[in-house]
Design a protein that fits this description.
Chains A, B: Keywords: DNA-binding, Transcription, Transcription regulation. The structure is a homodimer of 111-residue chains. The first copy, chain A, contains five helices and three strands; from the N terminus they run H-H-E-H-H-E-E-H. By secondary structure, the first copy, chain A, is α+β, with helices and mostly antiparallel strands. The first copy, chain A, has one domain: Winged helix-like DNA-binding domain superfamily/Winged helix DNA-binding domain (Arc Repressor Mutant, subunit A, Orthogonal Bundle), CATH 1.10.10.10. In chain A, strands 1-3-2 form a three-stranded antiparallel β-sheet. The interface between A and B is large, with 42 and 42 residues.
Chain lengths: 111, 111
């Protein structure tokens, strides 16, 4: 655990950075879904069960943080496709650890 | 990565469980702070820089999930002390992985 006050403050900031980028109810769920391959906006909305309004906000933030790419497809009507970036792989360990914790927490709560 | 649809749904649920219990801006920060030892409510509010209203909501949820204990101290005026439970140790790996990801994300963004 960091010793000095300054180190503690930095540790808190980096933790909040992660929570800011991947926290909230949906981002890691969207990443989990997209790991199976790119999807169109509507497909993603249906698969995750999120409204278009919330989904577009989440995807915009994920795009800003370099986790997904957005491709406009020349279809009629125009469709937009989302795909994970290689950088999103850096979240694999975090998703795995979160899965494991959620699973054991469920078992503890069931008792 | 889980194969069947059902496994995928369960994987999403356990991920959301973790996000529900430790997501949000403050819970993991509070756990990080309390790892240095128990603190009174006011001390915690000052150390984390959170309002009493938000802090008491976060601590109530953490208490419900078995992450902290709340002790009323027979002082004048009465004070309330918060301490991590042994169960909160199960979050150590998650906090470490989040620290590491936040740190590398900061470096990437600074470019």
């Amino acid at each position: 655990m960091p010793a000095t006050d300054r180190e503690c403050k930095i540790a808190m900031l980096t933790l909040q950075d992660t929570l800011h980028v991947v926290g909230g109810k949906w981002k890691l769920v969207l990443i989990s879904i997209l790991r199976a391959g790119k999807l169109k906006f509507r497909e993603l909305s249906r698969e995750a069960g999120i409204s278009s309004r919330i989904l577009s906000k989440e995807l915009k933030e994920m795009e800003m943080n370099g986790l997904v790419t957005r491709t406009v497809c020349d279809t009629n009507p125009i469709t937009v496709e989302y795909e994970l970036t290689p950088y999103s792989d850096t979240l694999s360990e975090l998703i795995t650890v979160m899965h494991a914790w959620g699973k054991q927490h469920r078992e503890k709560i069931k008792g």
